[in-house]
Amino acid sequence: MASKDDRISFSLKCTVCGEENYLTEKNKKKHPDRLELNKYCNVCKKVTPHREKKK
Question: For the segment 24-48, what is each residue's pLDDT rounded down to a tens digit?
């Protein structure tokens, strides 16, 4: 059975303006690398790449 400790929560940061817009979580054992998604940024008013923020 999977434990709750496998999942970590983090924020996604816009690569253009640097604003933290989204909170999400992932399984750190299955996906150890940094996540990058194209999401809408309210500050830039367009879809931009968002990366996992360093802790």
Answer: 999 989 989 999 999 999 999 999 9
Please report, for the domain that includes residue 16, its CATH number: 2.20.28.120
Across the beta sheet with 20-27, the strand order is: 20-27, 7-14, 46-52, 36-41
Domain span at residue 18 reads: 4-52
* Tally of domains in the chain: 1
Which pair of tokens denotes residue 15?
Answer: 């690569």
pLDDT value at residue 1? 59
Report d(CA 12, CA 21) in Å as an integer: 6
Q: Could you tell me if 34 and 28 are in contact, meaning their C-beta atoms sit under 8 angstroms apart?
A: no
